[in-house]
UniProtKB/TrEMBL annotation:
InterPro entries: Antitoxin_Phd/YefM, YefM-like_sf. Coiled coil: none annotated. This is Antitoxin. Belongs to the phD/YefM antitoxin family. Antitoxin component of a type II toxin-antitoxin (TA) system. Residues 67-91 are annotated as: Disordered. It holds the Pfam family PhdYeFM_antitox.
Length: 91
C-alpha cells in the first residue's frame, strides 16, 4: 500500500507510484505549502463522483435579470419626478 499524502516534490519524484495507487482505488493527496492542494483519483472514481454531484444552478443572464424586474401596473399614472435642490458646498 502506498502512502496517501505527498508533498509536491515527492509526488513529482514518484509520479508512477502516485498514479498506480490512485488507479487501484487509493486516492492520493498532494500538498502544496503544507496544505492539501489536489487529490488524484482513478478515472472511474472521478466519473462516479462527478455523476452524483448535484448540477450547479444556472445563473440568469443580464437580459433575463432585467426582464424579471417588477413592472408598473397597466394604467398607472406617471408620477412627477422629485425635484432636488443643490446646496452650496461652501468653498
Amino acid at each position: 500500500m502506498t502512502r496517501p499524502n505527498w508533498t509536491l516534490q515527492e509526488a513529482e519524484a514518484h509520479l508512477g507510484a502516485v498514479l498506480e495507487a490512485a488507479s487501484h482505488g487509493e486516492p492520493q493527496t498532494i500538498t502544496l505549502h503544507g496544505g492539501a492542494s489536489v487529490v488524484v483519483v482513478a478515472t472511474h472514481d472521478y466519473a462516479r463522483l462527478n455523476k452524483s454531484a448535484p448540477p450547479a444552478p444556472a445563473a440568469p443572464n443580464f437580459v433575463d435579470h432585467l426582464l424579471a424586474m417588477p413592472r408598473e401596473p397597466e394604467g398607472a399614472s406617471e408620477q412627477e419626478p422629485t425635484r432636488l435642490s443643490l446646496r452650496d458646498p461652501g468653498f
